[in-house]
Design goal:
267 residues, alpha/beta, TIM Barrel, six-stranded parallel sheet, four-stranded mixed sheet, 8 helices, globular
Amino acid sequence: MRALCVTVDLDRDVNVALEGRAAGSLDRGKGTDPRFASSAKGLSILSELFDEMSIKATFFAEASTLRKVNASLLSGHCVGIHGVDHEDITSISNIDEKKAILEGSAAAVRDAVGKAPECFRAPYMRIDDETLDLLPGIGIKIDSSKYTALRKSMLPEKIRGGLWETAVPEGVDSKGKKIAAYLWPMHESKRRPEDYIEMASEMEDGVFVIATHTWHMAESRSKGIMDPKEIAKNVDNVRRVIGGIIDLRMSPMTLSDVRRTVEREAR
């Protein structure tokens, strides 16, 4: 298997952790109450790009954001869960509260897209064993909440409760600097598309997972809301990353597609 999984966190604009459970948005002069406009716009931008490239992506939808955006744009894509209000689930000691967040997130996805979710990514990429143990009980079969060292073989691994782990790779670039397959630095003009393509070229077998956020297609954390020219450059960079990795003879697949393929080949 040589697969590319394009994954997208669908969550509130430039999320920031606040005291308490729910996250806010970076203060742009009107406080830290959650904002959703950039995420909604970014979803539209990515939906159009994926249609253009004939890509089916995996979205990890935060329930509160999912209720604020045009969920019809997710049609045909794999939609997993990402909490209700971008909670750091590892900070929650009450297991019933933790379970309620996971169940609430799953219910929001079912209501929005008409299909039960089977994928999970923890907000902030923070996961614990207790949460992993809860996931199968709500129908989750795939977790993508961890980073793992990039290696030649990146096949999914079976972990607790029969879950498949499809981690986001991280390694070092040609200059010896740390790089992860989250596109965040590229959106902030700190990395080139070629950096991620070169990273993917090191994998010979398995699944290369890249990740981004919807809001990051329309808003920079450091510079603010993007103008049309900045958005166009941002879109082109994502197009170049995806196209360049596909040119390495990696087939675009959703995480659900990967699970079915791995389980079929294991029989």
